[in-house]
Design a protein that fits this description.
Layout (H helix, E strand, L loop, with lengths): L1 E2 L3 E6 L2 E7 L11 E3 L2 E3 L19 E5 L5 H10 L7 E6 L2
Antiparallel strand pairs: 1-2, 2-3, 4-5, 6-7
């Protein structure tokens, strides 16, 4: 998923599958939330209400301080070319 300031764009296997216009919405990046006696700012695979969890496996998570271009997403999937410019987090789970 990329966010360019107005649109959330979802990719699957390097191809865009959905886009959601979020004009007027701002992600909550200023507060932390308590969940199961832990303080969290970022939720991956769940939400702050401790319900509606993702069912499946998450292999790794990467975050950038910019929205990746569709070409970058495609190259990352098809060729394993990962752009590190602006990358602020990489968590390999496996």
């Amino acid at each position: 998923i990329t966010f360019n300031g107005s649109d959330l764009i979802m990719y699957l296997d390097g191809k865009q599958i959905d886009i959601e216009d979020t004009e007027g919405s701002v992600p909550d990046n200023t507060e932390t939330h308590q969940l199961n006696n832990e303080t969290r700012l970022l939720f991956i695979g769940g939400n702050i209400d401790d319900k509606d969890f993702f069912i499946g496996d998450i292999d790794e998570v990467r975050l950038w301080d910019r929205a990746l271009a569709a070409k970058e997403v495609k190259q990352a999937y098809e060729k394993g070319i990962l752009f590190t410019e602006g990358q602020v987090l990489h968590v390999p789970f496996y």
